[in-house]
Specification:
The complex is a heterodimer of chains A (about 425) and B (about 325).
Chain A lengths: L1 H21 L40 E7 L7 H16 L3 E7 L5 H10 L6 E4 L4 H7 L6 H4 L8 H5 L2 E2 L2 E2 L2 E6 L2 E5 L10 H9 L6 E3 L9 H6 L18 H14 L2 E3 L2 H9 L5 E4 L4 H7 L3 E4 L12 E9 L6 H11 L2 H11 L2 E2 L9 H12 L1 E2 L7 H17 L3 H15 L3
Parallel strand pairs in A: 1-2, 1-3, 8-9, 12-14
Antiparallel strand pairs in A: 3-12, 4-5, 6-12, 6-13, 7-10, 7-11
Chain B lengths: L2 H8 L9 H31 L21 H7 L10 H30 L7 H13 L2 H11 L6 H12 L17 E3 L2 E2 H27 L3 H9 L4 H29 L2 H8 L10 H11 L3 H26 L8
Antiparallel strand pairs in B: 1-2
Helix pairs in contact in B: 3-13, 4-8, 4-10, 5-8, 6-11, 8-10, 8-11, 9-10, 10-13, 12-13
The chains are: A alpha/beta (about 425), B mainly alpha (about 325).
Chain lengths: ~425, ~325
């Protein structure tokens, strides 16, 4: 009996291994088909000969497309706007099947990149443009110059510029984003227009201010640099932050801290403190406006205060739809992106989710959005060069050192700049 | 095959054909070996391979092979040439060793102590206490880290609130207890910022119960006659503990202590979620740094070299401790 069962046992074991290794017909597969040679071509490849070249959506979009977004990570208003836009696009294009997938913001760029590397991933993807340059250099997003045609004819130059990497368009721009000063208008009559006014207001106890103060605060505090005449890189990508202005900006932040500004290491705590009325002001972006509008009855937004060298220069980023090089029909994917960013769609996002439209023709009525539009216009287009990768860690650490240990701003900034240049081989 | 011929085949000299039963046994383990080869050995070998290349994210895409860079990744790590703020390999290694050693010593002492208490005759609700003490182990690690992180919060954490309450009894102002447990940059002692103690407290809460379980098992296996014989020979309580209890605990506790050392050395989630390696990288462990190199810096080649370093460090420690303590040797040898 035992001898009879032995071969059966071996066969069963092998069958288990084979079935475990081969997968099953019932196993769900990614919605993206495996790309053919053509669709797997490098980002710079030209479109197929039968592809339309106008780039203008015809109103008869068709096909199956998967979309990724991270709008559920915000205040919820962006998700509402997206759903409204999707409804309109679907109604206008009955042959178009859009499968929409929410992604948590944390780690989304890695997830996207890994999916693309595995010949999968969504056809279209929208997220903050934190990684536009990196995604382009990785080859995980498509260069769109050959597909866009005159699709961006009514788009702000700033939006187009912010969507380019090394001169090539890599996303269909939807909106512009930069940080500004939120304040509670019930407790702050007039927001400070200058850095001196802000410091004096804190010293006098006129208002409580909170700022993002840990190593993660390099983005939110970047605007102060311009107010003190600081600059990050020259045209060659060499860090020049040690040549004046940036150390002064950090010294100013240290002065603010000494005067009583709370620098929160955790942004969620900072945001909660503002919503709960513990602080009267903070610096944040339009993506958070929905939550603040809900929590603060009389919410105001103003540009970050001007400094001795001029206006604050927060980084202006451009969010847009990225196209996966694995998509089977890149031209149709671009046309879908153009439909999702039409002036009508951008108006919905502007009115519902405080987005600053990338299209010239979309008027902004909301006072909060208007203020952000001002901040965006005066902001500095976020660089997409590879050298920026070595900015965040070094200057986030510098900010933390100045605020947490009282390190000398001049030496700290010089060290951070030297480290950035060394890492970039400059 | 008859029983007689099967018995005879067992006595075959080396170098001759395997007996049929042995061949069948190998056939049985072959599928498992095949699966292990695919999901364990191949990734390990691939990791060693990419540790000698400049493998980055773009190399994941088809037709983008990484370049062979020899030992450059290993040298960059050892010479702190990664251009990452606060990266200092030897300091991190020293902290990691100290972190693991300090934790294990505390866990074993508390674990054995509690096991001795629970082993006392006449103790009521013994099974309840044992079940209660094991509870920390079954809580998901991310929840443990998050709860402890919140408990150590400067403004709202229960630790500071309790200290403020206690300090109030002695009329110490509340401001004295606004302790920034997780971010205070100064070292209290070398390699020990305040965040180290916060991590140590959290991991002690988590780590001693399993030591107590192992010690309890070992204690229950000690024949009572040995204690009676020792008592008859005039041994006092300390001598009985030293010459009977400790001797019988050793075979169980030393391997578990080595295991605990390795686990604590690689304990990812407390450092990652409670302190994020801070302040200024002072509580970064090798394993969290390896994760950051792969996940955040996306330097896969360097991260692989880092992991190979970790493997040999742990191997060396295990062999050394094992040899010094003869931990895997049975007490009756």
């Amino acid at each position: 009996m035992i001898r009879t069962l032995k071969p059966a046992g071996i066969l069963m074991s092998l069958a288990l291994v084979i079935s475990a290794c081969s997968g099953s017909a019932a196993t769900p597969v990614p919605s993206i088909s495996a790309p053919d040679t053509e669709s797997n071509a490098p980002a710079s490849d030209a479109p197929s000969s039968d592809a339309p070249t106008s780039g203008e959506p015809s109103g008869s979009l068709s096909g199956d497309f998967t979309l990724w977004h991270t709008y559920s990570s915000g205040a919820g208003t962006e998700l509402d706007a997206l759903n409204e836009v999707l409804e309109q696009v679907r109604a206008a294009n009955p042959e178009l099947n859009l499968e929409v997938v929410e992604q948590p913001f944390e780690g989304v760029f890695d997830r996207y990149g890994l999916e693309v590397a595995g010949s999968g991933g969504p056809d279209l993807f929208i997220a903050p443009n934190d990684s536009l340059g990196q995604l382009s250099r990785d080859g995980t997003i498509l260069a769109l110059d050959d597909y866009i045609g005159d699709g961006l004819s009514g788009t702000l130059d700033l939006a187009v510029e912010g969507s380019q990497v090394d001169g090539a368009l890599h996303q269909v721009p939807e909106s512009l984003k930069a940080v500004a000063l939120y304040y509670n208008a019930d407790t702050v009559d007039t927001p400070p227009a200058t850095t001196d006014e802000l410091l004096a207001g804190v010293e006098n106890g006129d208002y409580n201010v909170g700022l993002f103060g840990s190593a993660g605060g390099a983005y939110h505090n970047f605007g102060w640099w311009g107010a003190f005449g600081g600059q990050l890189m020259d045209e060659t990508g060499t860090c020049v932050a040690d040549q004046g202005g940036v150390a002064e900006a950090h010294a100013y932040l240290a002065d603010l801290e000494a005067a009583g500004v709370t620098f929160y290491p955790d942004f969620a705590d900072l945001s909660d403190a503002f919503k709960e009325g513990e602080i009267d002001m903070l610096v944040d972006g339009p993506w958070a406006a929905g939550g603040y509008v809900e929590a603060i009855a009389n919410l105001g937004v103003a540009p970050m205060p001007e400094g001795p060298s001029g206006p604050a220069l927060p980084l202006t980023g451009v969010d847009g739809w990225l196209i996966n090089p694995n998509t089977e029909d890149p031209q149709m994917a671009v046309d879908v992106a153009l439909a999702l960013t039409s002036p009508e769609a951008q108006e919905i996002f502007a009115n519902t989710a405080y987005h600053i439209p990338a299209a010239e023709s979309v008027a902004i009525d909301d006072p909060i959005s208007e203020q952000f539009a001002t901040a965006v216009e005066s902001g500095l287009v976020r660089p997409q060069n590879v050298e920026l990768n070595n900015f965040w860690g070094n200057f986030g650490n510098a900010l933390d050192l100045v605020l947490a240990t009282g390190a000398d701003p001049e030496t700290t900034i010089a060290d951070a700049c030297a480290a950035m240049n060394e890492a970039n081989g400059k | 095959m008859s029983a007689a011929s099967a018995d005879a085949s067992l006595g075959r000299p080396k170098g001759t054909r395997l007996p049929r039963d042995a061949r069948t046994a190998y056939l049985y383990i072959a599928p498992a070996l095949l699966v292990m080869a695919i999901i364990t050995f191949y990734p390990l070998l691939f990791q060693v391979y990419i540790s000698f290349t400049d493998f980055e994210f773009r190399n994941l895409l088809p037709n983008n092979p990484a370049n062979f860079v020899g030992a450059e990744n290993y040298l960059r790590i050892a010479q702190d040439r990664l251009n990452i703020p606060n990266f200092a390999f030897m300091r991190m290694l020293a902290f990691n060793l100290w972190w693991a050693a300090s934790n294990v010593v505390i866990h074993v002492i508390i674990g054995v102590g509690v096991a001795l208490l629970l082993n006392q005759p006449g103790l009521r609700f013994r099974r309840f206490w044992r079940a209660l003490y094991i509870l920390p182990v079954v809580i998901p690690p991310i929840i443990v880290a998050t709860v402890w992180r919140n408990m150590f919060d400067t403004r709202d954490g229960v630790i500071n609130q309790a200290l403020i309450g206690l300090g109030g009894l002695a009329r110490i102002p509340a401001e004295a207890f606004e302790i920034d447990w997780l971010r205070a940059p100064q070292d209290i002692l070398p390699l020990m910022p305040l965040a180290f103690f916060a991590l140590l407290i959290a991991n002690t809460w988590l780590g001693w119960p399993l030591n107590a379980v192992v010690a309890t098992g070992a204690l229950q296996s000690i024949p009572k006659e040995l204690y009676e014989a020792a008592e008859m020979d005039g041994a006092g309580a300390w001598q009985r503990f030293r010459n009977v209890t400790l001797v019988f605990l050793r075979p169980a506790m030393l391997p578990y202590a080595i295991y605990g050392f390795v686990i604590t050395f690689n304990l990812f989630y407390l450092s990652f979620f409670m302190t994020a390696g801070g302040p200024f990288g002072k509580t970064e462990l090798l394993v969290t740094q390896a994760f950051r190199l792969a996940s955040q810096q996306r330097l896969y080649g360097v991260a692989a070299a880092f992991a190979v370093f970790m493997f040999f460090i742990l191997l060396a420690i295990t062999l050394l401790v094992n040899r010094a303590a003869k931990a895997t040797a049975s007490y009756d040898r």
